[in-house]
Write a structure and sequence with these properties.
The complex is a heterodimer of chains A (415) and B (233). By secondary structure, chain A is α+β, with helices and mostly antiparallel strands. Chain A folds into 2 domains: 185 residues, no CATH class; 130 residues, no CATH class. Chain A is built from 13 helices and 16 strands. In chain A, a hairpin with a 2-residue loop joins strand 9 and strand 10. Chain B has a single domain, classed as 3-Layer(aba) Sandwich (Rossmann fold), CATH 3.40.50.300. In chain B, the strands form 2 sheets. Chain B has a 6-stranded mixed β-sheet, with helices on both faces. The chains are: A alpha+beta (415), B alpha/beta (233). At the A-B interface, helix 1, helix 10, helix 11 and helix 13 of A face helix 2 and helix 3 of B.
């Protein structure tokens, strides 16, 4: 490899066979380019899906109810199911082992929110302290609703960053200010932010007890929210979360006399199960991209081999001349392989640098749902380049070896 | 310089075996200019190929400059070719993407000579064949006679013991042929041993000795009075 004469000889050959060199290089570079871009987007898709689930706690379970659709124990279908505080309390004590955070909520219908003389259109919900963790919210000012507020039925409210920006202009401090919710004054005690972005910041929260008592809710509950205690193993976490969901659903169906096979009266949404489904999907997609990528590489290898075959064929006469002038078989093989390795290496790295550069520069700007920051593992990419170089060398070796061992007379007859 | 004893060679053609050389005995001394003549199929090219170590005899002895040539593998043959022999072909066999100078320099590359030295020496030999100004032209830009002169320079540059020319004027018109033969005679005058295979009488008579080959045996081996090619140029 360090033989400078050999290098000069090879550069001469390359310089004088530009088209052949260019075509060989192009097939290698495009193979690498396609592979890297594909792998990048596989990764981007996984990043994107992971991001979609960041907005809520990923081991979240949500319950909501609708009307029954099946006759059960003499009760007609079409009966609305309403959860009550006792359901929430019962679940809390029965599943205390599994539950980490919990909250019920009660939505106040047609709440009219006013600040000073300005009317603002936000929804108002009564929630428990655990709601913060269930929804992946953070406190940017003041504090969240706590158990004291619940016990004392305090008339306090928390607003979001978005609401703060819209109501309290000029950077006015919202803490201690009073909001008018359907005629009742609520003191603002905190400002929260939601990882889910602005869409999730359109709500004002007050204590559940206050919501039920002040707004005529009695002990009615709209939804139940839970997060479960973390488990190391992902599959085990999914299994436990599914079991919890099913047990809880069974209890609620019993408590409200709902047929066990009623598809819509009691609904449980289990995020973890959904996450698993998505991760299985992304794994599938990644696998598919790998498959396509490897096929591309194989096509590249075949292309390189093909070109090598033609190159050797085309140079048979030249090889004969060189041998007549005293070239040894190994020097012929060495020359051809040296040249092909050099070309595949240069063009392989060119394709690598170009595609990775493209991903680096434009990747962060790609803002499509479910695709985020496509990028590729450098080691994986560089290994594929070496695989391609190696394959090209192996593919080139056999025709080169055969050509180097053709009788000079036969080689010279070749036109 | 060259000693050949009882050389046999046959080719397999399907189920038949074609006996091409049937016991050749022949020797060439230093500084000779020998023409090997014969019609096609007489075995003259086969003989030249064996002398050039491009082909191997079935039996018989071959000694070149005191070195017995036998049990050749490709590497050994390449070595001997590079050290002992220079080839001139009917179809020139220049590498078409290399300039005249690079073509001439190629045997020196395989002698592992440095690039600069290679170019200097090659240029000297190109000058000898009168093509110094054409050194940077590709073969496609040269005439047939010029190409053959480049080939002669290439054959000479490695300072071989023996120059082997296979129908070197076969692709040239007679004027150009005489020019090339003039060059060959001059090289021979400097003391180089040259073997020329030809079927043309006039070319053969420009050598100092003619070996007639027919059906694989030497039928006549005569010294002739050399006709100087310069008389026709």
């Amino acid at each position: 490899m360090l033989d400078i004469e050999r290098w000069q000889e090879i550069f001469d050959t390359i310089r004088k066979n530009k088209l052949r060199t260019f075509l060989t290089g192009l097939s290698v570079a495009s193979g690498i380019f396609i592979l890297v871009i594909l792998l990048g987007f596989g990764q981007g898709m996984q990043n994107g899906i992971a991001h979609e689930f960041e907005e809520d706690a990923s081991n979240r379970v949500v319950v909501w109810t609708q009307v029954t659709t099946k006759e059960h124990k003499g009760l007609n279908p079409g009966r609305p199911i309403q959860m009550r505080n006792e359901n929430f309390d019962y679940i809390e004590s029965r599943f205390s082992e599994e539950i980490k955070d919990k909250s019920a909520n009660y939505r106040i219908r047609n709440a009219l929110v006013n600040y000073k003389k300005e009317s603002v259109g936000y929804s108002v919900q009564g929630v428990n302290a655990g709601f913060q963790f269930v929804e992946n919210q953070y406190i940017s000012q003041g504090r969240y609703i706590n158990y004291e507020d619940y016990k004392n039925v305090s008339k306090v409210a928390i607003i979001s960053n978005t609401i703060k920006r819209e109501i309290f202009k000029n950077g006015q401090d919202p803490l201690g200010e009073y909001l008018d919710i359907s005629g009742i004054k609520f003191k603002v005690i905190g400002v929260y932010g939601d990882m889910g972005g602005e869409r999730e910041e359109e709500r004002i929260f007050i204590p559940l007890s206050t919501a039920q008592r002040v707004f005529n809710g009695s002990d009615r509950i709209n939804n139940l929210y839970y997060t479960l205690k973390p488990v190391e193993d992902f599959d085990q976490a999914v299994a436990e979360s599914v079991k919890f969901s099913n047990d809880m659903k069974r209890y609620l169906q019993d408590a409200h006399t709902v047929a066990p096979d009623d598809p819509s009266a009691v609904n449980v949404f289990n995020t973890l199960e959904e996450v698993k489904r998505f991760f299985t999907l992304t794994n599938g997609i990644k696998l598919f991209f790998w498959f396509v990528g490897i096929c591309t590489i194989i096509a590249g290898v075949v292309g390189v081999s093909n070109i090598m075959l033609i190159v050797v064929k085309e140079r048979t006469r030249e090889i004969g001349i060189r041998k007549a002038l005293g070239a040894k078989p190994w020097s012929i093989v060495g020359m051809i392989l040296h040249e092909s390795i050099f070309i595949t290496a240069i063009s392989g790295f060119a394709g690598l640098i170009f595609s990775m550069g493209l991903l680096e520069i434009f990747g962060p700007y790609i803002e499509v749902d479910y695709i985020l920051n496509p990028s590729v593992n450098f080691n994986v990419a560089i290994s594929t380049v070496f695989v391609l170089i190696f394959a090209g060398a192996v593919a080139g070796f056999f025709p080169a070896w055969r050509a180097a061992n053709i009788h000079v007379i036969d080689a010279l007859k070749d036109e | 310089m060259i000693e050949i004893k009882d050389l046999h060679k046959s080719y397999k053609m399907g189920s038949n075996s074609l006996h091409v050389l049937k016991g050749i005995n022949f020797s060439v001394k230093d500084g000779e200019l020998v023409a090997i003549m014969g019609s096609s199929g007489s075995g003259k090219s086969t003989l030249l190929n064996i002398l050039g170590m491009l082909d191997e005899a079935d039996s018989g002895e071959y000694t070149l400059d005191g070195v017995p040539i036998k049990n050749l593998n490709e590497t050994k043959a390449a070595n001997y070719r590079n050290k002992f022999l220079g080839f001139i072909f009917q179809s020139f066999n220049l590498i078409n993407y290399k300039t005249a100078l690079e073509n001439v320099a190629l045997p020196l590359y395989y002698q592992r000579m440095g690039r600069k030295q290679r170019q200097e020496k090659s240029l000297k030999y190109l000058e000898q064949v009168g093509l110094k100004e054409w050194s940077h032209h590709l073969p496609s830009e040269l005439s047939g006679g010029q190409k053959q002169r480049v080939a002669v320079a290439r054959a000479m540059v490695g300072e071989p013991k023996v120059l082997l020319a296979d129908e070197l004027t076969g692709a040239l018109d007679s004027t150009t042929s005489y020019e090339v033969m003039d060059l060959i005679q001059k090289i021979n005058d400097q003391g180089n041993t040259i073997l020329v295979v030809t079927h043309e009488d006039d070319i053969a008579h420009m050598c100092k000795r003619i070996v007639h080959l027919r059906d694989g045996v030497i039928v006549k081996d005569e010294k002739v009075k050399q006709v100087r090619a310069s008389a026709y140029v």
